[in-house]
UniProtKB/TrEMBL annotation:
InterPro entries: A_A_dipeptidase, Zn_M74/Hedgehog-like. The record marks R66 as: Transition state stabilizer. SUPFAM superfamilies: Hedgehog/DD-peptidase (SSF55166). It comes from the Bacteria. The gene is ddpX. One of its GO terms (molecular function) is D-Ala-D-Ala dipeptidase activity. HAMAP family: A_A_dipeptidase. PANTHER family: D-ALANYL-D-ALANINE DIPEPTIDASE (PTHR43126). Binds 1 zinc ion per subunit. Belongs to the peptidase M15D family. CDD domains: D-Ala-D-Ala_dipeptidase_Aad (cd14840). This is D-alanyl-D-alanine dipeptidase. Its cofactor is Zn(2+).
Amino acid sequence: MLTEIALPDFDVDLELLYATADNLSGRPIYRAAVCLLHPEAARRLQDAIRLARGIGCRLRVYDAFRPAEAQWRLWRAFPDPTYIADPRLGSNHTRGVAIDLTLLDASGRPLDMGTGFDAMTERSHHGRSDLTGEQQRNRALLLGVMTAAGWEHYASEWWHYQLPDPERYPLLTDAAAGGRLM
């Protein structure tokens, strides 16, 4: 059973870009903007929400659970295993234990992370020293919030976090979401 991430239970801003054409494929991946996570990931997201609030920020979620069917669509659009998991191997999003997100300031503006979400370039990698000091601090803030809440980062994407040992969770199709996404 997956947990729906939505107001009022989860104080996050949802901008589920894969339900729009504003993503790397150029067309909607999902037919509906529904945000879901494994219950353990949802619990840790609540911790991250609390920690972000403590530094005067809020979280914006770009993607969470991604059915296997959607993983295939992304792979066909951008078959680079540095950024898109090969669906034959499985994605941690397809397990419901990964999330793509950023921090918003008190006025609701995203903090400058140096690249946008899904910028599939080396500038999106963690630990970049060729970013401005502000961009590095903003990435460090997000990293601090998420790791303090029990998430692990993915080295190639500043926006991607996942639960430790994700392979212990099964890969899921849209059936796990009641057919709501695809």
